[in-house]
Design goal:
The structure holds 2 protein chains of 2 kinds. By secondary structure, chain A is of the alpha/beta class. Chain A has helices at 9-27, 65-79, 92-100, 117-122, 130-135, 145-149, 173-179, 188-200, 217-220, 222-227, 244-259, 269-274, 288-294, 329-342, 345-355, 367-372, 375-381, 391-395, 399-411, 417-435, 437-441, and strands at 53-58, 82-87, 109-113, 152-153, 156-157, 160-165, 167-172, 206-210, 262-264, 278-284, 299-302, 314-315, 317-323, 386-387. Chain B is mainly alpha-helical. Chain B has 13 helices and 2 strands; from the N terminus they run H-H-E-E-H-H-H-H-H-H-H-H-H-H-H. Chain B has helices at residues 13-17, 25-72, 90-97, 99-130, 137-149, 152-163, 169-176, 188-216, 220-228, 233-262, 265-271, 281-290, 296-319; strands at residues 75-76, 85-86. Chain B starts with 12 loop residues before the first helix and ends in a 9-residue tail after the last helix. Classes of the chains: A alpha/beta, B mainly alpha.
Chain lengths: 442, 328
């Protein structure tokens, strides 16, 4: 019999390495190429009873912890299902990171944003909700169409609209009065005219503030490029990002900064607007409360401006509620009931009133809010013009960042827009090929 | 060869009165070996008792993640995905050949050089002042050192207000001198210099305190002798003080390079959230894994490159630079 002492040290080293390798492959992702996710078995939902308790992972969008707790209490009272709440991060990105890295392995319902749910879908971590919602008697027809369609991919929905927002046009009514301007602009051409007047009259340093790269400019400026007939992509076709229409829209924005009637905010367009540096800007509806609190002037709101090719289309934003694919059918059914409760007309009216998010349910009664904050009515009415975002911005990993940095660079320099957008298109193609093509084409 | 008596045979009267026969050399060696083994075993038990828990913790929380990370760096793996594809060294190849990877090296080089040189030169100048008998010296030392122990996030937030090109304090100072404010936050080059300035401000207290300790160990008699020999202040500094400070300079050089490559994350993340022109290697690790791309495998490869880079820098410094150090 060979004792351990007689084994050559090299073999011991190889054995140790082998053991480490085995341990690593056991703990890491599956590299067999066979795919770890099994096809979900068809569930006969009629035979499924809802679980007695579920776990809800949330970042409490808009500081909504108290409101969420109140809605949860109502749900438990109505159904007897207990809901354990986990604070999964301070914002949407952190929540997604938490869920992706295994922290949320026991979560049944999770808050994910328009830009963070798709990687989780690719990870097979989200359940398609259509059948489960039907089993839970949730009426999906009440959701604002564009907000629900945000979660539609390959024929299935992967979430329901919860804490939703859109960009909104804000203007300084005091500056308007001082510069002799009657009312907010309807088109981008009018934005230019008003802004030039404000600067010429010396009312403010700038008539309009564009967002910097850390304030999601590809979201806020989608209305401008759509208005000219352009966009960031047409599903997975990226040629639109370098089209003449997109280039024309961005040249308009670049000229605005070069001509001096607009600036790119250093840290946030909200700060420039609220401090009076700029008289108009586009920012999330969710910022309305903060702007009203900070600004020492009368704040006006308006629909996003029209372009030469389209009427003020409004990109959707914010977050939805998703159901984890790892949960049991009983938990998923209870989760669907919970999701239905949180996004009902009454719950959304309550949630919207306290957070500033737009209600995702068409029947939400917002009259009390309108009395207190008439500006909010514009945000809700504008939902009629809501449009689902382009794939490139929300589904292509890294594309939003690429757009953000390019837009900031273009607006603060005299770089050739067409050349830069062709480079962006090539970058999108490269990102798609390296990070998505294999999985989507499978 | 004599026959050994039977063990069960009763001792003869002569044997009972005579001393036991002296053990052979081999028997003695065996006894000594047993004693040594017992001692070694006792030492090992003690060692394991005291060091074992720490070793286990280090293995579990440092070496296991380190080796795991090396394994993940060979995968094409999206963060959180249950599946991954082995790609060998492709992630490394990509990092060393792609324009974005080369940009990371450029930014890291400028940031490290600026941060290390700035912190050390300013730290030395401040230490020279604080080494004098000036009123309020103790307060000044505390004030200079305090930024080093402040939270990087807090420091970054305060400096964001200072640098704001529309409303910041720096804008008014530059205005006073008729200089227009650079496009901080918007221009990638200005961004990089902005974070270098903040890092140097936060870090120079550490350099100043270490230099001060070094200055106080310079023998006074040497300086006095040089003064008697009519050596001026500059001559005394370059001929006596600086050579005797070389161990301190060496120590600070090593630690500052490592710190600047690994400890600046908080400032970079808060002041430039998307890494516009400030993608140093430590920030790139975060951005690739968590900042939209979700490339866990590629990010792991960059982390391994950072580990190896720091290992090599330290080894080279220990091997070559230390030779130039002038110890007393």
């Amino acid at each position: 019999m060979t004792s351990l002492h007689t084994v050559h040290p090299a073999w011991k080293g190889i054995a140790a390495c082998g053991l480490v390798a085995l341990t690593l492959t056991a703990c890491g992702p599956d590299t067999s190429g066979e795919g770890a996710a099994e096809e979900a078995a068809d569930t006969d939902w009629e035979d499924v009873e809802p679980a007695e308790s579920i776990v809800f992972a949330t970042n409490h969008p808009g500081g909504s912890e108290d409101q969420e707790n109140e809605l949860i209490e109502q749900f438990t009272e109505d159904t007897g299902i207990e809901v354990e709440v986990i604070t999964s991060g301070a914002n949407y990105e952190e929540t997604s990171q938490w869920f992706q890295t295994g922290g949320g392995s026991n979560a049944d319902v999770i808050v994910l944003s328009d830009a963070t749910w798709f990687p989780n879908y690719l990870n097979d971590a989200l359940a398609p909700v259509d059948e489960i919602l039907e089993a839970a008697d949730v009426d999906v027809d009440g959701y604002v169409d564009a907000l629900y369609e945000d979660y539609l991919y390959e024929g299935s929905h992967y979430g329901v609209p919860y804490a939703r927002s859109t960009p909104l046009f804000y203007y300084n009514a005091d500056h308007y009065e001082e510069a002799g301007i009657d009312g907010p602009p309807q088109t981008w051409e009018e934005v230019a005219e008003i802004s030039q007047t404000i600067v010429d009259e010396g009312v403010a340093d700038y008539g309009y503030a564009f967002p910097p790269s850390n304030e999601y400019p590809a979201w806020g400026m989608a209305n401008l490029v759509w208005g000219y007939g352009g966009g960031w992509s047409d599903e997975w076709d990226f040629s639109l990002v370098s089209s003449d229409e997109t280039v024309e829209a961005l040249e308009f924005a670049q000229d605005a900064v070069q001509d001096g009637w607009a600036n790119v905010a250093a840290t946030s367009q909200t700060d420039d607007f609220a401090s009076g540096v700029a008289s108009q800007t586009i920012q999330s509806t969710g910022s309305l409360g903060g702007i009203l609190d900070t600004a020492d002037f009368e704040v006006g709101t308006a629909f996003l401006p029209d372009g030469p090719a389209a009427e003020g289309e409004t990109p959707t934003g914010g977050a939805g509620l998703m159901i984890a694919s790892a949960s049991s059918p009983e938990e998923q059914l209870a989760a669907a009931m919970f999701v239905g409760h949180m996004t009902s007309a009454e719950s959304q009216a309550f949630f919207s009133e306290h957070t500033g998010y737009v209600p995702s349910h068409v029947d939400a009664d917002m009259s009390a809010v309108y009395e207190e904050q008439p500006q909010f009515e514009t945000a809700v009415d504008q939902l009629e013009r809501a449009r689902v975002q382009d794939f490139a911005r929300v589904f292509l990993p890294g594309a939003d960042l690429e757009l953000a940095e390019t837009l900031q660079s273009l607006l603060t320099s005299g770089d050739d827009v067409a050349e830069e957008m062709e480079r962006v298109e090539a970058e999108f193609e490269s990102l798609y090929e390296s990070d998505l093509a294999d999985e989507l084409e499978d | 060869m004599t026959a050994r008596p039977r063990e069960d045979a009763p001792p003869t009267p002569a044997e009972t009165t005579r001393a036991a026969p002296s053990p052979t050399e081999a028997e003695l060696e065996a006894v000594r070996k047993r004693a040594r083994r017992r001692q070694a075993s006792k030492n090992w038990s003690l060692f394991l008792l005291f060091a074992g828990p720490n070793i286990l913790l280090i293995l579990a929380f440092i070496y296991y993640p380190l080796v795991s990370n090396m394994y993940y760096s060979t995968l094409d793996w999206r963060l959180g995905s249950p599946t991954a594809t082995p790609v060998g060294l492709e992630n490394y190849q990509r990092f060393f050949t792609s324009p974005s990877g080369l940009e990371v090296w450029r930014v890291t080089g400028i940031f490290t050089a600026g941060a290390v040189i700035g912190s050390m030169i300013l730290g030395l100048l401040i230490a020279l002042v604080l080494n004098k008998h000036i009123p309020g010296r103790t307060f000044a030392r505390t004030a200079i050192f305090s930024p080093y122990v402040l939270s990087g996030v807090g420091v970054a937030l305060v400096w964001m207000f200072i640098f704001d090109p529309q409303r910041g304090a720096l804008l008014h100072i530059l205005d006073f001198f008729g200089i227009s404010s650079p496009q901080w936050f918007l221009d990638p080059d200005a961004n990089l210099w902005m974070v270098i300035i903040v890092y140097v401000w936060k870090n120079l207290g550490y350099c100043a305190v270490v230099f001060l300790a070094g200055l106080q160990s310079v023998p006074r008699d040497l300086l006095e002798a040089a003064t008697i020999d009519r050596a001026g202040a500059i001559r005394r500094f370059f001929s006596i003080t600086l050579p005797l400070l070389t161990p301190t300079v060496f120590f600070l050089l090593v630690t500052n390079i490592i710190f600047s490559m690994t400890n600046a994350f908080d400032i970079l993340r808060v002041m430039t959230p998307t890494g516009n022109g400030t993608n140093t290697i430590i920030f790139e690790i975060y951005l690739q894994a968590f900042g939209q791309y979700n490339r866990a495998g590629y990010s792991a490869a960059i982390a391994v490159v950072l580990f190896v880079t720091l290992f090599l820098i330290t080894a080279v410094q220990l091997r070559f630079v230390e030779r130039k150090v002038h110890y007393q």
